[in-house]
Design goal:
45% strand; Immunoglobulin-like; 6-stranded antiparallel beta barrel; 3 helices; 7-stranded antiparallel beta sheet; 9% helix; 33 strands; mainly beta
Length: 476
């Protein structure tokens, strides 16, 4: 958790003079040399039309970037944004992730996990595919247009990247990241307490948390411990000025998916590849004013709802919970989170996509949360209608060819029994994907063909007396 978050990016690795961060949050430094024992990736090249970076970058090292994180050597990161550089030996500082897809990817693929279905045999190839997937979401990278190692168009890596993209689209809608150290208001308006959590959101005890205040005022103690409830005793604030900053710093787990900003250019970002223990800080601004929104809109595309909002300014903004409810229900459900920008007079745009929403009418709202735990709601001014398709349809699987997973989408204009099966070229059934009644709407199925051999397969959808057959190719 932190006072300020900085958006945009990192990439081409260039030698640079030594420097070190002066920030009080978790911090680190990019390794000064590339050691292939730890740096896992490959070199890629692409045309200016392949990404939204234009001619700024048309070639890049594509894979894990290794850093020293708070004294821990050889910690792997990925680049979050292709469009700007980071240098070898650059310092980096914790700036908390705002990219939902990057949180999902770093929680489910290398280096956080290994030996999972679909992982490429060579780690450098898998890391290359993962990095391209991140750039697809951040920089609209067209995977089929990327040349790998400058001389070969490696179809296996490109296909793997598209599979990761596909799996991320299908599963990342509710990906959130836990703030492992937080400041909350006490029962008395002049008190606060510190809360510590593990990366699953469970309370955890942490000793020797340093607390301080700047800008005027005193605290009743300089050090607190949290117990098994995750909470510290209340700290009493005396004589604080409006805008005084309270800070709590403790040795906690820094969650994978957290971004780190390069010191020499604030738009650079790296994404932490796995959980690591380190010093991390939370801030709160005493007596801050709420966040002012300029706009809050929604756009429906088939079964996905894209939410966008702009802030005019932000004071003490920890972030936004994104919540949804059916118009027929009184129960709001948290579906995501967007990290705020702390204190800023700069206007920022936020985006969130709610994937695979069932047909119906919905309300959406933002719960803007201050660092001290105060919050206010911002509601959409109208309902969002996720309609039903006007015709029966079976889409081409994506990616295609694939290895080993692919996604199949189908649309149903009315409720009905659904059969979705996969056959080989001899007409033998090899997979039964759906065999049940489904409601009208847009549906997504992920087909994992890890147990099948390479070849051409057919998938057939039947519902309400209508059927359709499509062809797909598995290449291993």
């Amino acid at each position: 958790m932190k006072k300020q978050i900085l958006i945009l990016a990192v990439l081409l690795l260039i030698t640079a003079t030594d420097s070190f961060s002066q920030y009080g949050l978790s911090k680190g430094k990019v390794n000064a040399t590339i050691d292939t024992n730890f740096w896992k990736g490959r070199n890629t090249s692409f045309s200016a039309a392949t990404t939204n970076c234009g001619t700024v970058h048309t070639a890049a090292y594509t894979g894990t970037i290794i850093c020293n994180l708070g004294g821990v050597a050889n910690v792997p990161f990925y680049c979050l944004d292709l469009c700007t550089n980071i240098n070898l030996s650059d310092s980096i500082k914790d700036s908390a992730s705002t990219i939902q897809q990057a949180i999902y990817i770093t929680n489910n693929y290398y280096p956080a996990k290994t030996g999972y279905p679909g992982q490429l045999p060579k780690i450098k190839d898998e890391a290359c595919a993962i990095q391209m997937a991140i750039w697809h979401f951040r920089n609209a990278m067209i995977i089929d247009s990327v040349n790998i190692d400058g001389v070969t168009n490696d179809p296996e890596i490109r296909t793997r990247a598209k599979t990761i993209i596909n799996e991320t689209i299908a599963n990342s809608g509710n990906a959130v990241q836990v703030s492992t150290i937080e400041i909350h208001p006490g029962v008395n308006p002049d008190d606060f307490y510190v809360r510590t959590l593990d990366t699953n959101g469970n309370p955890i005890a942490v000793n020797n948390i340093q607390v301080s205040i700047t800008g005027g005022g005193t605290l009743s103690t300089a050090t607190v411990n949290t117990d098994i409830s995750g909470n510290s005793p209340d700290v009493i604030v005396t004589g604080a000025n409006n805008g005084s900053i309270i800070q709590a710093t403790g040795l906690v787990t820094i969650p994978r998916g957290t971004t780190y900003c390069g010191l020499n250019a604030i738009k650079q970002l790296l994404v932490l590849g796995y959980n690591e223990i380190g010093l991390r800080s939370a801030f709160t601004s005493w007596g801050a004013l709420p966040v002012e929104l300029r706009s809050f809109t929604a756009l429906v595309t088939n079964s996905s709802v894209s939410l966008s909002w702009n802030t005019v300014s932000e004071t003490n903004n920890s972030g936004f919970d994104i919540e949804r409810k059916s118009v027929d229900s009184e129960q709001w459900k948290k579906i995501g989170y967007a990290q705020g920008h702390g204190n800023t007079n700069i206007s920022y745009e936020y985006n969130f996509v709610d994937f695979n929403v069932a047909s119906g009418k919905y309300n959406y709202r933002l719960k803007q949360i201050d660092f001290n735990g105060n919050y206010e709601y911002h509601n959409l001014t109208s309902n969002v209608n996720v309609g039903t398709p006007d015709k029966f349809n079976l889409s081409q699987n994506y990616p295609n060819p694939f290895n080993p997973s692919t996604t199949i989408n189908f649309d149903m204009p009315t409720d009905g029994y659904v059969s979705l099966k996969v056959y080989n070229t001899s007409g033998k059934e090899v997979a039964d994907l759906v065999n049940e009644t489904r409601s009208a709407g847009y549906h997504t199925i992920v087909f994992n063909a890890a147990a099948l051999s390479s070849g051409v397969y057919y998938y057939r959808l039947e519902s309400n007396g209508v059927s359709k057959v499509m062809k797909m190719a598995l290449i291993k």
